[in-house]
Amino acid sequence: MKALRKQRGPRPGSIARVPGIDYGGLDDLLGYALRRAQLAGFEAFHRATAGVDITPPRYTALIFVGANPGLSQTDLGAALGTARSGAMLLTNWFEAHGLAERRRRNGDGRAWGLYLTARGRVLIAKLARRVRAHDAAFAGRLAARELVQLKKLLGKLAG
Amino acid sequence: MKALRKQRGPRPGSIARVPGIDYGGLDDLLGYALRRAQLAGFEAFHRATAGVDITPPRYTALIFVGANPGLSQTDLGAALGTARSGAMLLTNWFEAHGLAERRRRNGDGRAWGLYLTARGRVLIAKLARRVRAHDAAFAGRLAARELVQLKKLLGKLAG
DNA sequence: CCGCGAATGTTATATAGCACTACAATCTGA
DNA sequence: TCAGATTGTAGTGCTATATAACATTCGCGG
């Protein structure tokens, strides 16, 4: 079980607008506007998880496991939108860091059930608090009414 | 100069909502809503560039080079929000595919200036048309007024 | 109850994308 | 003229994916 201290990975690259550069019509694309806003959101996440070696997919996966005890790796992959093999690598990482564990489920000798460890629960509780706070701060760039509207529109786009 | 035919990479994973799974409060996060919407936008881009081995960062970089002839790799990296080394890899790829080239700039023996080749200009013209069309189709999930509002709000978030 | 197809996890392999470090060449300004 | 900044580059490594092949196990139709 390795330590979970330093955040090593790359900083989340926000794309600051560079003055004097011609954006060649990119600004008119909804997709580009979404990307820029989302990178800003990643920064909020990054600040929230500073000092902990976690990443967005890892965080999402831990939340899923915490909220759905006994989840199988296949179902975790489906919820994340990734292949089974990716869910397995994530699970390996969680076990190596003592955050979650595989346990045999009653009926099925193939599937594992995933469960947070005590340590995982503590970490998720702490992180979720910080992530929510930073997300709220990020969302605070908008008025409350605007935020409601934005979420509605984003929901329409995501289908 | 390699061919530029098939798109090899992974499909852009949208995250379909999985029924029966508890999302553990993730839905309340603005960052998560942004991510989902942006992945849907990536799919539109993917459809627009089907059959061509291009990716969002490559496309963005080509647009930048086209709109800013003589751009240095450092400035390209800054505009993309990535490290210089990434801009160099992109540039290598462009040269290998005959889309852009490095040319010495007048005063400075260190920096290269980046320029689209004729082939790069043709490709970008064709792609930009398709990308705009698919972006418009994607944005068409919203009413015109909603779209204006959304872009305004996204702009606020991206700062 | 048997056997076959489906599901599950796993292993192995590959790729894109990106960061960081260290370095050589070049520029710039005191 | 020289010290420090800038630029491109090479090398290395890690995350996040995907795909294919495989063994185990399950479930069901006969």
Q: What portion of the residues of chain A fall into strands of 2 or more residues?
A: 5-15%
The CATH architecture of chain A would be Orthogonal Bundle
Q: From the helix content, strand content and strand pairing of chain A, which structural class follows?
A: mainly alpha
Rounded average pLDDT of chain A: 91
Counting DSSP H or I runs of 4 or more residues, the number of helices of chain A is: 6
Q: What multimeric state do the chains show?
A: homodimer
Distance between the termini of chain A: 40 Å
Helix content of chain A: 55-70%
CATH topology name of chain A, in short, is: Arc Repressor Mutant, subunit A
Shape of chain A: elongated
| CATH evolutionary superfamily of chain A | Winged helix-like DNA-binding domain superfamily/Winged helix DNA-binding domain
Helices and strands of chain A, in order, run as: HHHHEEHH
| Number of domain units of chain A | 1
Largest sheet of chain A: 2 strands, antiparallel
- What's the arrangement of strands in the largest beta sheet of chain A? 1-2
- The total beta strand count of chain A reads 2
CATH class of chain A: Mainly Alpha
* Rg of chain A, Cα atoms, Å: 18 Å
Considering residues with a beta carbon less than 8 A from a beta carbon on another chain, report the largest interface and each chain's count. Answer: A-B, 62 and 62 residues
Unreliably modeled segments of chain A: none
